[in-house]
Design goal:
This protein has one domain (2-142): Rossmann fold. α4 (81-89) links the parallel β3 and β4 (94-98). By secondary structure, the protein is of the alpha/beta class. It is globular. It has helices spanning 19-22, 27-38, 52-61, 81-89, 127-142; strands spanning 2-7, 43-48, 68-72, 94-98, 120-123. It has 5 helices and 5 strands. A 5-stranded parallel β-sheet has the order 2-1-3-4-5, with helices on both faces. The structure holds 1,3,4-trihydroxy-5-OXO-cyclohexanecarboxylic acid (DQA). Residues 10, 72, 74-75, 77, 98-100, 102, 109 line the site of 1,3,4-trihydroxy-5-OXO-cyclohexanecarboxylic acid.
């Protein structure tokens, strides 16, 4: 089993980016924690891109490569019809994840274009959102 973690724009800046909102943990540290949690349970792969097209292509290529996708689409969550269409077109289940509670922030963040085509959304728990997302990904496969 393999869980593919896709991370969108500006998440490469975690650690120094608006720490009052996103905390001080870097993406590499999040990945290390997820690898520990996944040990002897599932293979995991982490990718990050600032490019919308990369995220679309990775979702397109996921069948046969990953069993579940966990995606933090970052800013593209609120804007990307192309990413939503790619998620709609894949048969790989997708869990949406955010560090912050997007519903408690600016109004433009309340709407996620990808939420209706994902299995579910986890947000607002900081780094723990990623850990909860991995548990959700694993539970999807248990109940298959
Ligand atoms: C985010 C929330 C988005 O609104 C924002 O654009 C991000 C990060 C989060 O993880 O809380 O870049 O996805």
């Amino acid at each position: 089993m393999k869980v593919l973690f896709l991370n969108g724009p500006n998440l490469n800046l975690l650690g120094t980016r608006q720490p009052e909102i996103y905390g001080t943990t870097t993406l590499a540290e999040i990945e290390a924690g997820i690898r520990k949690q996944a040990e002897n349970r599932t293979e995991v792969e982490f990718r990050q891109s600032n490019d919308e097209g990369d995220l679309v292509t990775w979702v397109q290529e996921s069948p046969g490569e990953a069993d579940v996708i966990v995606i933090n689409a970052a800013g593209y969550t609120h804007t990307s019809v192309a990413l939503r269409d790619a998620i709609s077109a894949t048969n790989v289940p997708v869990v949406e994840v955010h560090l912050s509670n997007i519903h408690a922030r600016e109004e433009f963040r309340h709407n996620s274009l990808i939420a209706p085509v994902c299995q579910g959304q986890i947000c607002g728990f900081g780094v723990n959102s990623y850990h909860l997302a991995l548990e959700s990904a694993l539970s999807l496969k248990l109940t298959d």
